[in-house]
Amino acid sequence: MQPCSIDFARRQFLHSSLGLGAFLLPRVASAAEGNAPARRAKSVIVLLLEGGMSHIETWDPKPNGPSAIRGEYQPIRTSNPDLIIGEHMPLLAQQAHRYNVIRSVYSAARNHSPGLHWTLTGYDNPAAGINGQLVNAHPSIGSIVAHELGAVTEAGIPNFVAIPNRTQLGGRVNFNGAMHLGTSFEAFDSGATPATAKAPYVLPAGLTLPNDINLGRLEHRRSFLQEIDRLSDVRDRAAGTQQLSDYQTQAFDLLLGSKGRAAFDLNSEPAEVRERYGSSINGQGTLLARRLVEAGVNYVLVNYSRNNSWDTHRDNFNRLKKTLLPPMDQAVSTLLVDLDERGMLDETLVVMMGEMGRTPTINKNNGRDHWPDVYSVLMAGGGLTRGQVLGSSTRGGEQPGTRPVHVQEVLATVYQQLGIDPALAITDRQGRPASILPEAHPVRELIQG
Q1: What are the pLDDT digits (tens) for 120-164?
Q2: CA angle at 420 for the pair 441 and 134, rounded to the nearest 5°
Q3: Rounded CA gap, 191 and 207, in Å?
């Protein structure tokens, strides 16, 4: 064996650290310790409808409105006598007693980038956009959750996972960054999920070894580094070096152990369960999210869009009926039932939302345009009530009618149920205290007790 310094050995490991760089930095001390509210949810699954789903065709139909507003769909009854929904969500109609719908959510973001920034960070940023100079300055909700609850689970699995990846608008922006919190709290990308229930899932690169390294060689490398650490004088080690070694150990454990790979291994799921979730990217991604929260991951974001799919400026009704609603309906209804049957729904908060709704009036292209003035959000489990229809929009679906709910209140509820005070201050890039979520309170009507 060639002579090798400690620094060289560590550089070599980091060079082939198998995509686990996010685990190799120490966790920043939490400012929330000792001040957190009671934790009611262990995990959160956010189902992101990027582009903005029409509320009128889904959660807030207007059967008595003029045709220019009510559109082509008919409303259907649900298992909740207080709720009618659009006809192309029949499976969710059967499960309406398991979830809440807020019909009066609003924000001021009139375009996708500012809206997604608000939805994913909790901060208004009108300048957010695909221009590289208009960058995000706020850490994402998932990164803050990882910062407060730990970058990895007890089993060494990343605590913030994005399915299929952390970016938005076809990869043009990323509002899921950890920013000044550090790379330890970045999202871990799952990679592409199968398009059918029978197609195999390829484990993400961070959980697989390069072709030139097998488990035996990796174990040998760990033993070699451990021996170097044992022989080196403790007094000569900088504190940061020891922290780095600890995170190397976590990376090794995840790769050499089975728990991380098992949590992501969608291929081990019974065929009938994969079929239940649906033979679609959304269905298989949702099943993967259930596997991850079952393994202890605190925050999972599932993007139900491929490059802004729900942005239905054209052909709104056909696109919803034929392409968008059926896989979503199957995946979300199955998730709610599956979590409930496993005894996990009360401890898993499920939130389905976009960054906006769609215009009440139908445009000349038989579509609906951007409309943040009022839209609907589904919230279920995680210590919330069940079967509430909170708030309303006006008769034409233009504005909140009763109980307006700002999008920040929805996000504050997510933090609150995870035991994180949304008013907590953490330091910004300049070392100044900044609230996790400015001027927002949870939606108290939905919180049990």
Answers
A1: 999 999 888 877 556 677 999 999 999 999 999 988 889 999 999
A2: 75
A3: 11
Calpha distance 88→443 (Å, rounded): 28
Count the Cβ atoms, other than its own, within 10 Å of residue 145.
22
**Host H or E run for residue 239:** helix 239-256
Amino acid at site 147: H
Residue with tokens 């999210």: 289
Closest CA to 239 of 6, 431, 26: 26
- Greatest CA separation for the chain: 81
What is the rounded distance in angstroms from the CA atom of residue 354 to the CA atom of residue 368? Answer: 15
Residues in the chain where the model's pLDDT stays below 50: 1-32, 215, 218, 222, 225, 233-250, 252, 255-256
The closest alpha carbon to 86, from 96, 72, 100, 76, belongs to: 76
Burial of 261 from C-beta contacts in 10 A (0-12 / 13-18 / 19+): middle
| Residues in a beta bridge with 433 | 427
Domains and CATH numbers, the chain: 1-30+202-264 (no CATH), 38-195+273-446 (3.40.720.10)
